[in-house]
Amino acid sequence: MAASGLPANTSGLFVEPREDWLALHQEEIIDPARPIVDPHHHLWNRGHRYLIEEMADDIATGHNIIATVYVDCRSMYRADGPEAFRPVGEVEFANGVAAMSASGGYGKAAICAGIVSHVNLLLGDAAKPVLEAEIAAGNGRFRGIRHSSAWDQDPVVAGMYANRPKGLLQDPTFRKGFACLAPLGLGFDAWLFHPQIGELTELARAFPDTRIVLDHCGGPAGVGRFAGRREEVFAEWRASIREIAKCENVVVKLGGLAMCLLGYDFHLRERPPSSEELAAAWKPYVETCIEAFGPGRAMFESNFPPDKGQCSYQVIFNAFKRIAAPLSEAEKTALFSQTATDVYRLELSS
């Protein structure tokens, strides 16, 4: 399949969802009773609106979503006050959504049962009081932060991250901030591109007591300088995945593959892709991660709404279920719910 030259969203990494286009392809839900914890989604109201109503509508399309984890997307930061503390507003927002969900008015799923926000770890030791403020704002739901280190020399790959610092994870001041996480019982979600996985491996080895979640299969890229080199890039990515999987404190999220970053052009088609097509395209990446980390350290994620630019909620989890079909019941349970529940210490009602 050809790589997309579409500029996509202003981030450069995904396209805005088109509900009318997604509606052109509907599927019967595979294994509809299977409990699923969606450990990675965003909520925002900028450009394309995706708030609790839209999330609940997607969940209502058939899969048995029992809980979700909200992840940092610079949404609803405080408009004033000390700059360092403005991300606390995102935790307050996500916790408010969780309270709305707990009312039962948006379906049975516990939306935002876990919260991952942002703290600028370049604050060094001064990151600690901000983390403590987010713990307080989370009302028992706050589980950690994400400080994106995504960077690439090619602006087509980097997109909105083109101005981010190179080598962030190696910065001594960043590491001082990072050192504040584990003593507070917090984890770190890592978002980067595949050439940077080695830097995260070094960080994981330096902080073996800090839980690290590698988002989006480690960000394999197929655009810009990586376009037309899928087999070569896959081999490099696979070697990095196998190496970081040796770090027992690292787990991986299986998803983020419907963004434009991977280089597939499903969003340019007249009709949306089927789960069979997506499973075929994604299987090498997902299976490599599962083989390297094991089901107990891997979890399927929707990454909605970014991944919604190429497929619906029905289709994305059907694709994951197709890939997981040969696995045992215990392995499926881990991948679809238990790993996420354990990693994010979710307190779910039975």
TrEMBL record:
Entry annotated with the keyword Chloroplast: no
Superkingdom in the source lineage: Bacteria
Family recorded in the similarity comment: Belongs to the metallo-dependent hydrolases superfamily.
UniProt entry keywords in alphabetical sequence: Hydrolase
Keyword field contains Hydrolase: yes
Species for this entry: Bradyrhizobium commune
Gene Ontology molecular functions: hydrolase activity
InterPro entries: Amidohydro-rel, Metal_Hydrolase, Metallo-dep_Lactonases
Pfam families: Amidohydro_2
Occurrences of domain Amidohydrolase-related (ranges): 37-346
SUPFAM superfamilies to which the protein is assigned, alphabetical: Metallo-dependent hydrolases
Protein name: Amidohydrolase
Transmembrane segments: none
